[in-house]
Amino acid sequence: MSSSSFNSRHELLVAEILNAHEPCILEAFEALSKLLGLRAPTGKFSLHGMDLEATCALINLVELERNATQDWQLRRSLTEISEQAVSWLPKHFESHPESRKQYSDFIQLHCPDGFPWYAAHPPTTALALLYNFSPFQDTGATVASKRLRNFSTTFDVVACSFLHKKKQDPTIEKIAEPYVASKYFLPLPASWASWEPFKAFAVRAAEVSDSMHKKAHYEMVYSRAMWAPSIYAGFLFKQRNPEVEWVAEFSDPLSLDVEGLPRGTVVQTDEISSIMTDALADAYPDLELDGLTVFSLAENLAYAFADRIIFTNTNQKTTMLEHVGSETLAERVKRIGEVSNHPTLPRSYYEMESSPLEPDPSKLNLGYFGEFYSSRSIREVTAAMRTLPPQIAQKVHLHVFTNYIPASEGNRRPRNFSKRQFDELVQRAYDGVGAKGVESQVTFNASLPYLKFLATTEKLDYLIVNDAVSGDHHSVNPYLPSKWSDYAGSSAKSWGFVEDGSILSQKPVDVKTPVGDAYEAREVLWNMVLQKFPELDEEV
Fold first, then answer.
1. What is the pLDDT of residues 443-453, one digit of tens each?
2. N or C, fewer C-beta in 10 Å, the chain?
């Protein structure tokens, strides 16, 4: 390409590149100029560098050229130039670790394609053992990605392949991409609550990780549940490598169901489970080990051997401590446990993707994103819609984004689901909404890729988040919906259906309504409509 074919976009990028001060950026630009037959710039390079902006500009310029050619030799040369342009970042991140997250967020927003992160990572210092991880779509995978971003160190990740089990979402990759040097997916059958698949992952993940550790010399290993096999793998790795700090996270009480009752099958006695229970017995002789389930065994291993334990809210920590079967062990958990809510991403991530939603501005647009369970529905909203005066009710539209909608409505049945299983889940979603009588005011949509979901929240008036209805066996509601962390970063307002004393009830939700109170929801919804359309006040 000759300089005569440069357009205004190219010229703007070159102008940014000329602000660089870092020699490797300037050298990369000179190499690009020679490769493309450009005239050398006549201006002087900046003495006060804007190296990050210049690096992004150079990568964007390279991507323009890469997309314009099919010449593999030229494309390879362009890749080498990209790698050269970012070669200053590893040392910078090592010497200025506090800047890594800010720099990486800037790059993700301003350099959306083609950035060679593999050439920008400082040396790997941490390992993440995560049963499910991106690109497979899962709340746990998304939260884990946000945690890796918050750690702001370089990770290797060992995970289980959920191919043909979970949808893939490439947008989640952007969150942890600046911090993940490698990902190793084990081709094992995935399971929610069975010991044999759990054990298979733990053993294989620990073996692979041991081999990787010999080269990388990890300083930390991170494992997260919900997905108990992550904890088992973390334990086995820690036992073999006691010098490595083990950070274990629990998103919810693992061994209790939403009613507060024990869940999970009893762990079978075998070579691996015996290693685990023997270690617990040696360290905490007063701990009752009979009847440990696939979930409670994982909890106790983290309690006893992790160096740090992360709980996502204080009620969860309280609940889990109430069920520790040893006073000595409970004291240890109190000492090493910390509370950290699900991370909220900065505003830039809400701007990285476009939204497919074009809501009617003449309506009050409500949004619900997520699944439905016996403990979680939004029937209070639709009940309120049915009982509003017609001139108020017609102004409300509810947009529901969920995994299970009929296959003909922009969704398809997963290959591992029978038609009966899928239809039951679709019906559960319909029941959870309760749209009978207001069908024309409710739109069901397929769930969105994560960053498109964030972008879509920006287009709605209110985002609905609700507490799980906790059972009588819980002393406090131990759940904090992970959706709250996403809504907290959105410019849209939030409408929370909360249990008294829950963590969500203490958050800065814009409007709060008691869970299950359709009458209060009616009053709230009426006021929302009048706030957006005050002229209706005279008509009612």
1. 999 999 999 99
2. C
